[in-house]
Protein backbone atom coordinates (compact mmCIF):
# COMPACT_ATOMS: atom_id res chain seq x y z
CA UNK A 1 0.00 0.00 0.00
CA UNK A 2 1.33 3.42 -0.95
CA UNK A 3 0.65 6.19 1.53
CA UNK A 4 1.71 8.88 -0.91
CA UNK A 5 2.41 9.10 -4.58
CA UNK A 6 5.60 11.00 -5.27
CA UNK A 7 5.37 11.37 -9.02
CA UNK A 8 3.08 12.11 -11.91
CA UNK A 9 1.73 9.50 -14.28
CA UNK A 10 4.35 10.58 -16.82
CA UNK A 11 7.15 10.05 -14.31
CA UNK A 12 5.75 6.61 -13.43
CA UNK A 13 5.65 5.71 -17.11
CA UNK A 14 9.24 6.91 -17.62
CA UNK A 15 10.69 4.99 -14.71
CA UNK A 16 8.82 1.85 -15.81
CA UNK A 17 10.28 2.20 -19.31
CA UNK A 18 13.80 2.72 -17.94
CA UNK A 19 13.55 -0.35 -15.76
CA UNK A 20 12.28 -2.48 -18.65
CA UNK A 21 15.09 -1.25 -20.89
CA UNK A 22 17.72 -2.01 -18.24
CA UNK A 23 16.30 -5.50 -17.70
CA UNK A 24 16.36 -6.10 -21.47
CA UNK A 25 20.12 -5.41 -21.50
CA UNK A 26 20.73 -7.85 -18.65
CA UNK A 27 22.48 -5.18 -16.60
CA UNK A 28 22.12 -5.02 -12.83
CA UNK A 29 21.40 -1.67 -11.18
CA UNK A 30 25.03 -1.50 -10.01
CA UNK A 31 26.35 -2.21 -13.51
CA UNK A 32 24.02 0.33 -15.11
CA UNK A 33 24.87 2.95 -12.51
CA UNK A 34 28.62 2.50 -12.93
CA UNK A 35 28.52 2.66 -16.74
CA UNK A 36 26.20 5.70 -16.75
CA UNK A 37 28.37 7.62 -14.29
CA UNK A 38 25.79 7.35 -11.53
CA UNK A 39 25.50 4.57 -8.95
CA UNK A 40 23.53 1.40 -8.35
CA UNK A 41 21.50 2.88 -5.48
CA UNK A 42 20.68 5.91 -7.66
CA UNK A 43 19.34 3.66 -10.42
CA UNK A 44 17.25 1.76 -7.85
CA UNK A 45 15.85 4.97 -6.42
CA UNK A 46 14.95 6.25 -9.90
CA UNK A 47 13.20 3.02 -10.85
CA UNK A 48 11.30 2.84 -7.56
CA UNK A 49 10.13 6.46 -7.75
CA UNK A 50 12.07 7.56 -4.66
CA UNK A 51 14.12 9.94 -6.80
CA UNK A 52 13.41 11.91 -9.94
CA UNK A 53 15.49 11.64 -13.09
CA UNK A 54 16.71 14.60 -15.16
CA UNK A 55 16.62 14.80 -18.94
CA UNK A 56 20.42 14.53 -19.01
CA UNK A 57 20.38 11.40 -16.84
CA UNK A 58 17.63 9.90 -18.98
CA UNK A 59 19.70 10.51 -22.12
CA UNK A 60 22.74 8.83 -20.58
CA UNK A 61 20.71 5.78 -19.62
CA UNK A 62 19.07 5.55 -23.05
CA UNK A 63 22.49 5.66 -24.70
CA UNK A 64 23.73 2.94 -22.35
CA UNK A 65 20.70 0.77 -23.14
CA UNK A 66 21.32 1.28 -26.89
CA UNK A 67 17.78 2.61 -27.50
CA UNK A 68 17.02 3.55 -31.14
CA UNK A 69 17.10 7.29 -31.85
CA UNK A 70 13.37 7.60 -32.60
CA UNK A 71 12.45 5.90 -29.34
CA UNK A 72 15.04 8.02 -27.50
CA UNK A 73 13.34 11.20 -28.71
CA UNK A 74 9.97 9.93 -27.43
CA UNK A 75 11.36 9.09 -23.99
CA UNK A 76 13.34 12.32 -23.70
CA UNK A 77 10.16 14.25 -24.48
CA UNK A 78 8.45 12.22 -21.77
CA UNK A 79 11.28 13.10 -19.35
CA UNK A 80 10.86 16.81 -20.11
CA UNK A 81 7.09 16.70 -19.63
CA UNK A 82 7.42 14.65 -16.45
CA UNK A 83 9.29 17.54 -14.85
CA UNK A 84 6.87 20.25 -15.95
CA UNK A 85 5.04 22.17 -13.24
CA UNK A 86 1.24 22.00 -13.40
CA UNK A 87 -1.12 24.97 -13.03
CA UNK A 88 -1.99 23.70 -9.54
CA UNK A 89 1.51 24.56 -8.29
CA UNK A 90 0.24 28.13 -7.91
CA UNK A 91 -1.95 26.84 -5.05
CA UNK A 92 0.86 24.91 -3.32
CA UNK A 93 0.56 26.98 -0.15
CA UNK A 94 -3.17 26.40 0.18
CA UNK A 95 -3.74 22.81 -0.98
CA UNK A 96 -1.99 19.69 0.28
CA UNK A 97 0.61 17.65 -1.60
CA UNK A 98 -1.99 14.86 -1.85
CA UNK A 99 -4.50 17.21 -3.48
CA UNK A 100 -1.84 18.33 -5.96
CA UNK A 101 -1.16 14.69 -6.79
CA UNK A 102 -4.87 14.04 -7.21
CA UNK A 103 -5.14 16.94 -9.68
CA UNK A 104 -2.15 15.59 -11.61
CA UNK A 105 -3.87 12.21 -11.86
CA UNK A 106 -7.10 13.83 -13.07
CA UNK A 107 -5.16 15.73 -15.72
CA UNK A 108 -3.73 12.52 -17.19
CA UNK A 109 -6.55 10.04 -16.60
CA UNK A 110 -8.61 8.65 -19.47
CA UNK A 111 -11.36 7.47 -17.11
CA UNK A 112 -12.26 8.43 -13.54
CA UNK A 113 -14.71 6.48 -11.39
CA UNK A 114 -15.69 8.29 -8.19
CA UNK A 115 -17.89 6.69 -5.55
CA UNK A 116 -19.13 8.97 -2.77
CA UNK A 117 -21.24 8.19 0.27
CA UNK A 118 -22.22 11.63 1.59
CA UNK A 119 -20.72 14.26 -0.75
CA UNK A 120 -21.03 15.33 -4.35
CA UNK A 121 -17.59 14.76 -5.99
CA UNK A 122 -15.29 17.76 -6.19
CA UNK A 123 -15.22 17.66 -9.99
CA UNK A 124 -18.97 18.40 -10.05
CA UNK A 125 -19.35 20.74 -7.09
CA UNK A 126 -20.65 24.30 -7.29
CA UNK A 127 -18.47 26.97 -5.72
CA UNK A 128 -20.93 27.64 -2.89
CA UNK A 129 -21.32 23.95 -2.09
CA UNK A 130 -17.53 23.50 -2.11
CA UNK A 131 -17.10 26.56 0.10
CA UNK A 132 -19.58 25.20 2.64
CA UNK A 133 -17.80 21.84 2.78
CA UNK A 134 -14.33 23.38 3.06
CA UNK A 135 -15.42 25.73 5.85
CA UNK A 136 -17.02 22.88 7.75
CA UNK A 137 -14.16 20.39 7.42
CA UNK A 138 -11.31 22.93 7.75
CA UNK A 139 -12.66 25.08 10.55
CA UNK A 140 -9.26 26.65 11.34
CA UNK A 141 -8.76 28.02 7.79
CA UNK A 142 -8.64 31.76 7.27
CA UNK A 143 -11.17 33.18 4.73
CA UNK A 144 -8.46 33.74 2.10
CA UNK A 145 -7.34 30.11 2.45
CA UNK A 146 -10.91 28.90 2.03
CA UNK A 147 -11.30 30.98 -1.13
CA UNK A 148 -8.00 29.69 -2.52
CA UNK A 149 -9.16 26.11 -2.00
CA UNK A 150 -12.51 26.86 -3.64
CA UNK A 151 -10.71 28.48 -6.60
CA UNK A 152 -8.43 25.45 -7.00
CA UNK A 153 -11.41 23.09 -6.87
CA UNK A 154 -13.25 25.09 -9.53
CA UNK A 155 -10.13 25.20 -11.72
CA UNK A 156 -9.88 21.41 -11.53
CA UNK A 157 -13.22 21.07 -13.28
CA UNK A 158 -11.86 22.43 -16.57
CA UNK A 159 -10.37 18.98 -17.18
CA UNK A 160 -13.90 17.75 -17.98
CA UNK A 161 -14.48 20.24 -20.81
CA UNK A 162 -11.14 20.14 -22.63
CA UNK A 163 -10.91 18.42 -26.05
CA UNK A 164 -9.28 15.28 -24.58
CA UNK A 165 -11.52 15.18 -21.51
CA UNK A 166 -11.53 11.98 -19.43
CA UNK A 167 -14.68 9.95 -18.99
CA UNK A 168 -16.14 10.57 -15.53
CA UNK A 169 -18.37 7.98 -13.92
CA UNK A 170 -19.91 9.13 -10.65
CA UNK A 171 -21.57 6.64 -8.31
CA UNK A 172 -23.46 8.27 -5.45
CA UNK A 173 -25.15 6.85 -2.42
CA UNK A 174 -28.56 8.52 -2.11
CA UNK A 175 -27.40 9.85 1.27
CA UNK A 176 -25.26 12.38 -0.61
CA UNK A 177 -28.44 14.10 -1.81
CA UNK A 178 -29.64 14.72 1.73
CA UNK A 179 -26.44 15.80 3.51
CA UNK A 180 -26.46 19.61 3.60
CA UNK A 181 -26.72 22.66 5.84
CA UNK A 182 -28.62 25.03 3.53
CA UNK A 183 -31.40 23.69 1.35
CA UNK A 184 -31.04 26.29 -1.39
CA UNK A 185 -27.32 25.64 -1.79
CA UNK A 186 -28.03 21.93 -2.09
CA UNK A 187 -30.88 22.49 -4.54
CA UNK A 188 -28.57 24.45 -6.86
CA UNK A 189 -25.86 21.81 -6.44
CA UNK A 190 -28.25 19.05 -7.45
CA UNK A 191 -29.40 21.11 -10.42
CA UNK A 192 -25.80 21.35 -11.57
CA UNK A 193 -25.41 17.61 -11.08
CA UNK A 194 -28.38 17.03 -13.39
CA UNK A 195 -26.89 19.38 -15.99
CA UNK A 196 -23.49 17.69 -15.76
CA UNK A 197 -25.04 14.27 -16.35
CA UNK A 198 -26.20 15.47 -19.78
CA UNK A 199 -22.60 15.82 -21.00
CA UNK A 200 -21.38 12.96 -23.20
CA UNK A 201 -18.35 12.18 -21.03
CA UNK A 202 -20.15 12.22 -17.66
CA UNK A 203 -22.38 9.50 -16.21
CA UNK A 204 -24.10 9.74 -12.83
CA UNK A 205 -25.49 6.62 -11.16
CA UNK A 206 -27.36 6.70 -7.87
CA UNK A 207 -27.61 3.89 -5.31
CA UNK A 208 -31.04 4.30 -3.69
CA UNK A 209 -31.72 3.69 -0.02
CA UNK A 210 -33.87 0.76 -1.12
CA UNK A 211 -30.72 -1.09 -2.28
CA UNK A 212 -29.70 -1.62 1.36
CA UNK A 213 -26.05 -2.37 2.15
CA UNK A 214 -23.68 -2.33 -0.80
CA UNK A 215 -20.13 -3.19 -1.86
CA UNK A 216 -18.46 -0.05 -0.53
CA UNK A 217 -20.62 1.08 2.37
CA UNK A 218 -17.42 1.57 4.39
CA UNK A 219 -16.18 4.52 2.38
CA UNK A 220 -15.62 6.55 -0.77
CA UNK A 221 -12.90 6.02 -3.38
CA UNK A 222 -11.66 7.41 -6.68
CA UNK A 223 -10.33 5.08 -9.38
CA UNK A 224 -8.08 6.74 -11.97
CA UNK A 225 -7.42 4.80 -15.17
CA UNK A 226 -4.85 5.71 -17.83
CA UNK A 227 -5.46 3.54 -20.86
CA UNK A 228 -2.67 0.97 -21.02
CA UNK A 229 -0.88 2.32 -17.95
CA UNK A 230 -1.65 0.93 -14.47
CA UNK A 231 -4.62 2.42 -12.61
CA UNK A 232 -4.39 4.20 -9.25
CA UNK A 233 -6.96 4.34 -6.45
CA UNK A 234 -7.29 7.31 -4.11
CA UNK A 235 -8.72 6.93 -0.60
CA UNK A 236 -9.21 10.29 1.08
CA UNK A 237 -8.84 10.68 4.83
CA UNK A 238 -9.13 13.45 7.39
CA UNK A 239 -5.40 13.72 8.05
CA UNK A 240 -3.88 11.74 5.17
CA UNK A 241 -4.79 10.32 1.78
CA UNK A 242 -3.80 6.90 0.45
CA UNK A 243 -2.81 6.20 -3.14
CA UNK A 244 -3.00 2.50 -4.00
CA UNK A 245 -0.94 1.18 -6.89
CA UNK A 246 -0.52 -2.52 -6.15
CA UNK A 247 -2.47 -4.53 -8.78
CA UNK A 248 -4.40 -6.62 -6.24
CA UNK A 249 -5.46 -3.51 -4.32
CA UNK A 250 -6.58 -1.69 -7.44
CA UNK A 251 -8.45 -4.80 -8.63
CA UNK A 252 -10.44 -4.88 -5.37
CA UNK A 253 -11.78 -1.39 -6.05
CA UNK A 254 -12.43 -2.11 -9.70
CA UNK A 255 -14.53 -5.04 -8.53
CA UNK A 256 -16.27 -2.85 -5.93
CA UNK A 257 -17.18 -0.35 -8.67
CA UNK A 258 -18.72 -3.12 -10.77
CA UNK A 259 -20.74 -4.37 -7.81
CA UNK A 260 -21.95 -0.87 -6.98
CA UNK A 261 -23.15 -0.38 -10.54
CA UNK A 262 -25.12 -3.61 -10.31
CA UNK A 263 -27.33 -2.15 -7.55
CA UNK A 264 -27.38 1.45 -8.82
CA UNK A 265 -30.25 3.00 -10.74
CA UNK A 266 -29.65 3.42 -14.46
CA UNK A 267 -28.52 6.88 -15.63
CA UNK A 268 -31.99 8.18 -16.53
CA UNK A 269 -33.56 6.92 -13.29
CA UNK A 270 -30.67 8.45 -11.34
CA UNK A 271 -31.17 11.86 -12.94
CA UNK A 272 -34.90 11.70 -12.31
CA UNK A 273 -34.38 11.06 -8.60
CA UNK A 274 -31.76 13.81 -8.28
CA UNK A 275 -34.07 16.23 -10.10
CA UNK A 276 -36.98 15.32 -7.86
CA UNK A 277 -34.97 15.91 -4.67
CA UNK A 278 -33.69 19.21 -6.08
CA UNK A 279 -37.24 20.44 -6.71
CA UNK A 280 -38.34 19.38 -3.23
CA UNK A 281 -35.60 21.57 -1.75
CA UNK A 282 -36.55 24.69 -3.72
TrEMBL record:
The domain of life is Bacteria
Disordered: annotated segments = 23-43
The record, for SUPFAM superfamilies, names: lambda repressor-like DNA-binding domains
The HTH cro/C1-type domain covers 18-72
Q: Which GO terms describe its molecular function?
A: DNA binding
Q: What protein am I looking at?
A: Transcriptional regulator with XRE-family HTH domain
Amino acid sequence: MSRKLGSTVRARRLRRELKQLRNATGLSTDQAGERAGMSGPTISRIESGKRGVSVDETERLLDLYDVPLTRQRELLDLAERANELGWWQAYAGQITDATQTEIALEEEATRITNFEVVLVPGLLQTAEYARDIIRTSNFSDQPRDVEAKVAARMARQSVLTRPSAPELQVILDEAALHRFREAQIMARQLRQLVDAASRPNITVRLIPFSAGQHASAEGSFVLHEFGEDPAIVLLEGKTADLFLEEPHEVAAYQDAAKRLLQVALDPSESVELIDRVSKELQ
